[in-house]
Structures are given as structure tokens and as C-alpha cells.
Write the C-alpha cells for this entry.
Amino acid sequence: MSSIAEQTRTRRNESAVPSAESTQAFLEYFAEYNERILSYIFSLLPNEQDARDVFQRVSLVLWRKFDGFDRDGDFLAWACGVAYYEVRNFLRVAARNRLRFTDQLMETLADERAERGHEADRRITALRECVKQLPESERKLLLEAYAEGQSIRQMAERRGKAPQTLYNRLNLIRRKLFHSIERALAD
Amino acid sequence: MLPEKLRDELFELLGALVDDRLTRSQSERLEEILLSSAEARQFYFDYLDMHSGLHRWQMEEDEVEPLDAFRGELEKIVDQRRPSRLSWAKAARYGAMVLLVVTLAFAARWLLVAGGGGQSTDNAKIAEERVTTVYRTQGCVWSAEQSEWRVGWRPTAGPISLEQGVAELAFDGGARLLLEGPTRGTILGRNRIALVWGRLVADTRHASQPFTVVTPNARLTSRDGEFGVELTPDGACQLHVFDGEVHREFTGAAPSSASSLSSIRSGKAQLWDDRVARAIPLAAARFVRRIAPPSSAEIDRRCLLARESFAGSLLEDRAELDTGWLGDWSVELGRDSLASLDDGLYRTVGSTSATSGALRAEGPLRMHRRLSTPISFQQDDLYYFACLVQVGEGSAEKEGQIRWTLTDSRKRNAKGGVAIGLAAGEQVIHARLDGRSVSRAFSLKAGETHLLVAKLVGGAQAQDQVFLRVFQPSEPVLPEEPRYWSLATESARCDGEFDTVSLQIDGTSSVTVDEFRLATTWQGAVGPWIQGAAVPPEFTARADP
């Protein structure tokens, strides 16, 4: 159970409502950096649902703490700092039984990711173009695999195939996409 | 450039990672590679960017209007009661619309606060004046002006008058204060209180700032201590320091034999009035220093709507039926596969000894029972559901669903209502509200007891939602509701009233269930499994549930 002070700080943070002006300023920063913050979190928490949960939490924390942010400072660095803390907290509390990286690797990934956050945007733009160039059957498989609530096992049952077959196929498609993106960025 | 062989290996490992199939040895190998090479780490980042990009691409393919999704999610963020998923909207394009939503949310909050009775209706004023939280109470009777105070209330700076009982306040500066009625004072700020008369204990050991108790002729400040103050109406003040140090500064002329500024350390006590100050024996027993969680019996009495311990065979007339039901279970299918076990299921972490009895099904099962008090989504209410589940050895790979549902016996729609459960073979947990299901992968350990907990949020005007959390066998359950839930359904206007609990087991799994609990609080539902510190036997009051 967290200390009373931690609960109090959490309650204070969660109950304090930033002013409209502060919120507008926050949204301007957030609009520019939210995808990079999400990419940062995802680098540390590769499970999509976990990353979403933590991103939601981080977004709220950043909003509430925005008045304490020095606007001459680096918003992304500040946000990543908050996100790192929330990821560590999440791993400590909610993901006890998952395989997880050691603290040493987590810190290394966190540091390097924060420095390279801007590169994610280019890759995502290239990804959209590369997906369009995939054959229809491969695009359809990707769509089902990344759709909400669709497990590989369910997909395999529908197709009358073993789940491992679909995992292998998905991996091949991702590898193909990865190469396409690399070529697109190199051009 | 990474060697081709290493790239191939990374593709395999990262594919397993994002598909949640990574084994322990693969995880160790992946870590070894990533630690050894900055290039490998860059590869890792690039791969995950692609994977996360595919999720966002999927949103566009689904033609979900990003603005609507983001608007809905932000509304949920502002409404603090509903944890939510934030969609990956293009915030850059919708920043102005989001600002409008937030402004509307402020207005909604303003209206809600105004309807709360006595609370400030100005958001800026709320942020400035609310400096503490009523954290726990025991037998509290507040003055008429504060009759609405309850656990969770956020008082403004101002008078405080406790007629009776004990109240614990958590100040925003981090200090914790226990007031023992009758006590009267004034909350001065996030780290200050003036005591007019009465008794209190201040604990500043976890505070981020010093805390000050102001008496008629002195200021008592502690940064890292615990102390009790008793002030009688005739002005006699006692200070007892249990831990740390308290600085006393007389605000007027110091009494004789006392300096205007002094420190009183742990184990010491002082008594003074306008004329004289002297040391007295420490009397910790005069003060209440803790409010313990309510007893489980009290929780059950106040918060438990229904309970099934599965003690006694369902196939025979049971002499004693647990609380909250109309009649016993009706077994529609699978009577022959049922077995009543003498020993209940238990968790290895933070559990009291197992209650007697559990129910095992070796094949398909369908059974129902009527609640004596239906639960309703037609009003603003919270319900918590908990039960123990164990999938038999050798059954984890078999296909099979275990599903608890809440339905309205007057309606024929089987897909309405609430359903939560798990699919053993697929290793998936799922929840359904009003016909819409969500699921996610979950690692179920055969032969071990999992705790399934659901939170059901009903709203009179707002939408309803269901959250699900599955605790692994060795995962502790904390006294407070978790911040993260494994799964959440989409919000929906369900407005149902559910009077029937059903348990359905499909497939070939061997399943054991035990200790079903339906309650109105987190502690009511998961009380038997909460892992908490031992309650100090002395200086302790027991909180209201």
C-alpha cells in the first residue's frame, strides 16, 4: 500500500484541475508530441494494451502537472521522464508475472529512446505507404491481427489452420514491411 | 549494419515479443542482444515503431472517427472515476476541438460540484482552497455545518468541528491528521491547522513539507515526526512527541520557565498555558494514532450484497445458505459433472485460511441463482464482483469457457446484461456489456487459484462500463482498488436491472470455483484476500466500512 503522502500527492494531483489557459498551452505541446510519447512508452512496454493504459495515465499526469513545467524547457524530455516513472510503476504493480527487462536494459532503452524520438514519425509515415503496397490477403491478415479483441487462435480456428502457422505468416509480413520501410527511408 | 544472422534472430524474438509469446529463455537472449549493441537497440526501436504504427493504421481502417473516439476518451479522462483507454488520435488536427471538449468538461464539473452541496462552484477556487481529504472515519458525527462530510470529501480551508468519533485527514502537504471528537479548529492550508480545543495527532513523517498546529499561544511545527496535541477550553495545552521532533514557538509572551522557541524530541511531553510551562510524562495512550481498516465482519454487514461459499453440496438441500439470495442454485445442465469439495480454494498470498467448500465441474455446466437484491445500472452505483477460479491440471490447453453472467430474469435476451470470464484453452479473459465483448490474452496457470475481480459501474445519466482484473496466484491484493484493470468494456447505456447470477462452463475443462462475492465496495468484494500490514493493537480505532 502506498504511503499516505503518496496517496495525498496523487489525490492532490488528480483533483487539481488546470486552468483553461494552461490546458490550451498543454494541448499545443501534446498535439505535437503525443505520438512520440506513445512510441517511447511502447519501447519500454511492448504489450499494446499495457502501453495504452500507461499512455492514458501519463497524458493525465502531464496535463495536471503542466503548470510545473518550465515552458522554456524540453517538453518531450520532461514528458518522457514522467512516462518512464509511470512505466516503472506499472511494471512494479500491475505486471508482476510478465517477463520484463532488467532495470539496466530499461534505463538504457529509456535514455536512447528519448534521444531518438523524432525518428519514429518518419517511420510511421513510411509505414502507411508501405502497407498500401502489400497484397490484399496480407493487408487483410494484418487488419484482423491488429483489430481489437481478435486473437490469433480465433483467427486460426476460422481459417482451419494451426495458430503457429498464422504467427509465422504474420512475422513474415512484418519482416517484409520492415524491409520496405527501410528502403523507403533510404530513398 | 547488423549481421544478417543477428537480424533474423531479432525478427524472430521481436515477433514473439509483440505477440506476447516470448519465453523466458527468449527474453534473456533478447536482453543479451540489446545490451550488447546500440545498433540492435535501434533495430528494436524501429521494429516497435512499425508495430505501434500498425495499431494506429488499424484504427483508420476501421473508419472509427478519430475525433469522436478522442473526444470520448478525453471526457473519460476528465471524469476521474472512469479509467479509460486513450485512442491514438491525431491530436494535432483536433487540438481546437479537444480544447472545446475540455471547456465543456470544466462546465460539467462546475455543475456537478455546484450540485454537491456546499462545495465551491469556481474551479480556480476549488484548486486553491481544497487542501485536505477526509481519508478514514470511525463513528464520526460532524457539526451541522459539516454534516455532508464523508470519506473522500475535500474540505475547503475553514472551520472544522468534529462532535464525536475519530476522523483521519490527509493534507495535501503530505501530513496525516487524526482528530478525536469533540474537537474544534480551523483548517488554514495544506500544511496548517489551528486548534481551538480538542485533541489531535499529526504525523508528518511522510510529508513533503513541515506541518504546523497553531494553538492560541504557540505554533507547533514538525517536519518528520508524529505528535499529539490536546487543548482544553481553559487554554491548557499538552504536547506529546511520539517520534521525531517538534519545534514550539510561542506567539505571544512565553510562559515562565520556557523559552520562546524550543524543540521537544521523541519521548518527551510538555504542558503549558499562559503562565507556566513544564515537562510531563509521555502519555501515548491518551491519543488515537491509527484508524484500522474495518473488520471483515463489519464490511460484510454493510457492503456485501451476496456471497456463495460453496460449502455443502449443491445437489442436496443445504441447511445454511449464504447471504443475499432467493433460494438455492438451479442447475440447468451438468448435474452429473458436479462435485462438491470439502476444501475451499485459497490463495498463497495475503489470504486468510480457506473457507470450507468449493465447487468442481468436470464438464459443461449451466446453473443460475436469484439475487435477493438486484443490482441496477439505472442509477449511479458501483458494484464489485469477485470469485476464485482454478482450471484443472491438464485442462489449461483444452478449449473451454468459464463465464459468470448477470442477467434480468424477466428478459429473454441472453446477450444482454453483464458477462465476465475466461477461456482456458485460448488463454484469454473477456468481458461483455450489453452485447459487446472485449477480450485480451492472459496467462492462466493450471492447477493454481486465480482471483477474478470485476468492477461494474452503473450510471443514471452517464454510460455504464465493466472492468475486469485477474490476479495471478501469487499476486497480492491491496486494500485500495487497483489503478490498472486488465480489461475494460466500452461504455454503453445498459440501464439494466440484474437479478440473476449464472455460471456457465463450456468445453472440456475441469474447473473449480469458490467464494463468489458481490459487494458495493472494493474491500467488500476482495476482503478475504487483502494483504495488509498487521494492525497495531494499541492506539487504534477501527474505521467505518
Observations:
- Residues 120 and 126 of chain B are 6 Å apart (CA to CA).
- The longest strand of chain B covers residues 158-171.
- Chain B has eight helices and 29 strands.
- Residues 38-61 of chain B form the longest helix (24 residues).
